[in-house]
Amino acid sequence: MSRIRVTKExxxxxxxxxxxxxxxxxxxxxxSYRLFVTVAGTxxxxxxxxxxxxxxxxxxxxxxxxxxxxxxxxxxxxxxxxAANGELTKALGARFGKMQAVxxxxxxxxxxTRFAEIIAPELPEGVELFSLxxxxxxxxxxxxxxxxxx
Length: 150
Hints:
By secondary structure, the chain is an alpha/beta fold.
């Protein structure tokens, strides 16, 4: 049977700040993110299986991504944990429940890499994470491909 790729789209709203950046993104600002998750595998060939003909149940993919990505990041603020912004991070964390201090610069590129690290191990046996595309704006996105990261 053929190897097939299937894709599901997710969206969430998130704010971030790029610590030390030399442009306007050094200020707290937000985006309407769109995440495209593509998995690959061989469709189930057992006609007795309720998942017959599916690479992966879209509902299962939705549960994984919503549970590990969208619920965590939607309406949150990401800020890089540095010595220079320790007091700010502490104050924001005390005031806002969905403020996250992270150990990386929360760029689109770093976020898509982090999302791949989170999603890949959650997939069922025989299904591989093929690629992710994270739109930060309508015209700007970062892509992650498994084939580039082996």
